[in-house]
């Protein structure tokens, strides 16, 4: 059985780390940035990271999943992936999180579209405007095309 790493000796960094992680989940990069701004040294920060990860308090896959769920109400998978990468989430975690999001991409795109627009486009200008709107939110063109075509599975979502 693996032995858990010891609690860092520096009580100040332990306190700061627990305060940060009690507020919300964060990526490892965000955690390091916040502790660095508090002027802790690299050795103490690394000890805190190892300890918090072993205790399960610093959990990047959990952070990515929660962030993807929160952002998924407004954005498509590509925009969520870009945001996670910007926050410093490692690429393997981003890829697995986004793969899980792909299943509901059409329904999320339709929800985002329906909050903004009342009807399917009837002119090229309106179609272009609605397409740009959904593209800016990170939905791919295949999904946008299906939403704006009013396909059956998108129309079923209208009834909900």
Order of helices and strands: HHHHHHHHHH
Integer-rounded radius of gyration? 21 Å
In percent, how helical is the residue content?
Answer: over 70%
Q: How many DSSP helices? A: 10
Q: What can be said about the biggest beta sheet?
A: none
* Overall outline: elongated
Mean pLDDT: 89
Strand residues, percent: under 5%
Low-confidence stretches: none
Query: How many E-type strands?
Result: 0
Q: End-to-end distance, in Å?
A: 50 Å
Structural class: mainly alpha
Question: Could you characterize the architecture of this molecule?
Answer:
This protein has helices at about 10-25, 30-35, 40-55, 60-70, 75-85, 90-100, 105-115, 125-135, 140-150, 150-160. It is built from ten helices and no strands. By secondary structure, the chain is mostly helical. The longest helix has 14 residues, at about 40-55. About 70% of the residues lie in helices and about 0% in strands. The termini are far apart.
Which key phrases capture this entry?
160 residues, mainly alpha, elongated
């Amino acid at each position: 059985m693996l032995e858990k790493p010891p609690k860092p000796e520096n009580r100040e960094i332990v306190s700061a780390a627990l305060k940060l992680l009690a507020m919300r989940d964060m990526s490892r990069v965000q955690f390091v940035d916040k502790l660095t701004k508090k002027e802790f040294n690299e050795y103490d920060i690394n000890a805190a990271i190892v300890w918090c990860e072993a205790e399960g308090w610093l959990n990047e896959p959990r952070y990515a999943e929660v962030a993807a769920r929160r952002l998924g109400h407004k954005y498509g998978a590509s925009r969520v992936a870009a945001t996670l990468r910007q926050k410093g989430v490692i690429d393997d975690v981003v890829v697995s999180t986004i793969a899980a999001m792909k299943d509901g991409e059409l329904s999320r795109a339709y929800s985002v579209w329906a909050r903004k627009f009342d009807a399917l486009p009837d002119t090229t200008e309106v179609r272009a405007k609605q397409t740009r709107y959904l593209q800016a939110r990170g939905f791919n063109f295949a999904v946008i095309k299906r939403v704006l075509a009013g396909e059956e599975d998108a129309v079923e979502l209208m009834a909900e």
